[in-house]
Amino acid sequence: MIAIQTIDLTKKYKEKIAVNSLNLTIEQGELFALLGLNGAGKTTTIKMLSCLTKPTNGDAMILGNSVISNPMKVKELINVSPQETAVAPSLTVRENLEFIARIYGNDKKRSKQKVEDIISSLELSSIAEEKAKVLSGGWQRRLSIAMALISEPQILFLDEPTLGFDVIARRELWNVIKRLKSKITIILTTHYLEEAESLSDRIGVMAKGELRAIGTPNELITQTNAEKFEDAFIALAGEGEIRI
Amino acid sequence: MKTLVFASRNGKEILRDQLNLFFGIGFPVILLLLLTVIQSNVPVILFPIDKLAAGIVVFGFSFLSLFSGLLIAKDRTSSFMLRLFAAPLTSSDFIFGYTLPMLPIAILQVVVCFTVAFFLGLDVSINVVLAIIVLIPAAILFIAIGLLGGSLFNEKQVGGVCGALLTNLSAWLSGTWFDLDLVGGTFKRVAEALPFVHAVNAGRAALSGNYSSIFPDLWWVIGYAVVIMAMAILVFMRKMNSDNT
């Protein structure tokens, strides 16, 4: 079943085309990575798919619901972990999680249960009563992802989830993401090629607002006659001709 | 329900900052005490408690603008607002969620100020309850200014506009520290074109039981509150639907 389908999805900021006629289909349960250099259009694409920015042209269907005509239904089905940590600073970890559970429509009892579950599954119990603003960057990011998961989204957008992490923290978060694989659809943007290669079912490479290639890491390597994935990415994300 | 959940989060963010509590409640009380001490040491009537109390309450309300403006600006300039905008919250959830927690804080400010004023000689009467009701539109006005400021400016700018500028305007142009007739001219005309002196006068009229004098002034306050709240809602909704929050 299709989780996301974009139809000529386009975003222009005045004269600048951030995303140009994006046509993309992502299946349910897939972990799809969007790769590209800075300004390639990855974050703008995620913003359009999560109803944070209105497309200039085209549309995107999220589990059959249009981001243009039915954004509130889309918002009930998805959640986002933004590029920067997005937590309420003066609330404790537990309160942050309960707050998000409740604004997604769960009653108090159900919210408390979900909070306990997510604290347990993401190993947050040691910091559960700490205010978010006193946590380290790594813990804040983990909380931010927990806040995205607590609404039990069918589609989760992870925008640069491990940006600024050290190796250990990155590997821990990879394990969390791997545990989620196939349970929900995940759209991941990242600058770390090994992250995309290790985690993703398929990868889309964007450059200058356009989707240059799509496929598994091995397919992309084959497609570009490269020896390794990094070479394939450079060939696709660089200035070369568009090839899909 | 979502509105109340969001309002609860906003209330916690404000009340957990002890500096907010000091400026919102402690500072007006200190001013009330200080000016009463000054009054007791000068031979002329400068700060009679029945006139001073309402003025200090309105001055204290200016901190509501600062609190709400800073909270919204902080949310807007962090990714937290992205998270909220991606959630199934409506425009009214946001507007009421940011406004509602400020009302109990405003009422607490008034109650604390009047309670201290009782100890300083303010008559205990039913008129105090009326004054609290009459001052609520002024509280809403200041909350709306904060909502507007927080929607338009970043955290630093809110500090300047809603902090330094608004607290000074509401102090000097409200007739609390001195009778506007003593300055007169353009100063008085500007002060009377703004809502602050009208809020103070309406509160004073209610406190003194001069009921017929409440409404000419209160209309000014209500008018300003409605217009600025409408502007704040429009600006916030525009920001919500724009590409840059």
Describe this structure in words.
By secondary structure, chain A is α/β, with parallel strands linked by helices. Chain A is 37% helix and 26% strand. Chain A starts with a strand and ends in a 7-residue tail after the last helix. Chain B is mainly α and 245 residues long. Chain B has one domain (2-243). Helix content of chain B is 79%, strand content 0%. At the A-B interface, helix 2, strand 6 and helix 3 of A face helix 1 and helix 4 of B.
In short:
The complex is a heterodimer of chains A (244) and B (245). With 244 residues, chain A is α/β, with parallel strands linked by helices.
Count of discrete alpha- or pi-helical segments spanning 4 or more residues of chain A? 9
Please report the total strand number of chain A as a whole number.
Answer: 10
State the distance separating the first and last CA atoms of chain A: 23 Å
Major interchain interface with per-chain residue totals: A-B, 33 and 26 residues
Integer average pLDDT of chain B: 94
The succession of helices and strands of chain A, N to C, reads EEEHEEHEHHHEHEHEEHH
> What is the rounded distance between the termini of chain B?
25 Å
Oligomer class: heterodimer
Could you tell me the mean pLDDT of chain A? Answer: 93
Strand-residue proportion of chain B = under 5%
